[in-house]
Amino acid sequence: MDTTIELYGAQTGNSQRAAIALEEAGVRYTARRLDLLAREHRDPAYLALNPAGKVPTLVDSTSVPARIINQSNAIIQFADASAPGRLAPAQPGWERDRVFDRYFFFVTDVIAPSHAAFFLRQNGLDEAAAKIERRVIEQLVYSESFLTRAFMAGDHFSMADISAFTIAASVREQLDWATLPRLSRWFNAVSARPAVERGLRAFQHP
């Protein structure tokens, strides 16, 4: 087992997004599953790595001191830097710009509002949450227009597809797939990628 790079996480979209990025980039790592119901994410040893007690967390022991990254989107950037060209074009230019443009669209206009809606529902503000959830679906439907090629940012799989896929998977039951043929084709194609399948399974129960 390679413990040089460890990824702590659970069966959450954020953790899966980080695992998929590492898998797609070909970065060797060991998944460390945390049982959220058992509150393992509040254990003092884990809080020393991630004081917020959230998942995921990446620990890269190839550096001295070890590099610790707590945000899933920063872990995606780590994966991109570890394997240039795998998650975005390596060279600056309009193709790389488009990947980042689409990537941040899903991060800021879809994933972040979805997290906000979850917080509101936890606090009993269902009507406010529902309005945000409708906006999340509207933005995903809008992303159908991105798919003039095979993937969200062109002909090649990229970090834009990772950010899009995990949030689309979380609301798949709310999407009218029959009216979204390009999004449906894309979703099925991404689901079938071996690295994506491995990332989705990274934190499953043994």
Would you mind describing this structure in some detail?
The protein is α+β, with helices and mostly antiparallel strands and 206 residues long. The chain folds into 2 domains: 5-86 and 196-201, Glutaredoxin (3-Layer(aba) Sandwich); 94-193, Glutathione S-transferase Yfyf (Class Pi), Chain A, domain 2. It has helices at 13-25, 44-47, 72-82, 94-122, 126-142, 159-170, 181-191, 194-201; strands spanning 5-9, 30-33, 57-60, 67-69. It has a 4-stranded mixed sheet with strand order 2-1-3-4. Helix 1 links the parallel strand 1 (5-9) and strand 2. The protein is globular, with a radius of gyration of 17 Å.
Set down the secondary structure blueprint.
Elements: E1 5-9, H1 13-25, E2 30-33, H2 44-47, E3 57-60, E4 67-69, H3 72-82, H4 94-122, H5 126-142, H6 159-170, H7 181-191, H8 194-201
Parallel strand pairs: 1-2
Antiparallel strand pairs: 1-3, 3-4
Helix pairs in contact: 1-3, 1-6, 1-8, 4-5, 4-6
Sum this structure up briefly.
The chain is an alpha+beta fold. The chain has 8 helices and 4 strands, in the order βαβαββαααααα.
Give a quick set of tags describing it.
alpha+beta; Glutaredoxin; Glutathione S-transferase Yfyf (Class Pi), Chain A, domain 2; 8 helices; about 210 residues
Question: How would you spell out the order of helices and strands?
Answer: EHEHEEHHHHHH
CATH C-level name of the largest domain: Mainly Alpha
CATH topology annotation of the largest domain: Glutathione S-transferase Yfyf (Class Pi), Chain A, domain 2
User: How would you sum up the global shape?
Assistant: globular
Distance from N terminus to C terminus (CA atoms, Å) equals 15 Å
Instruction: Round the mean pLDDT to the nearest integer and report it.
Output: 94
- The amount of beta strand, in percent, is 5-15%
Biggest sheet strand order reads 2-1-3-4
The radius of gyration is 17 Å
Determine the fraction of residues in helical runs and give it as a percent range.
40-55%
CATH architecture of the largest domain: Up-down Bundle
Biggest sheet features: 4 strands, mixed
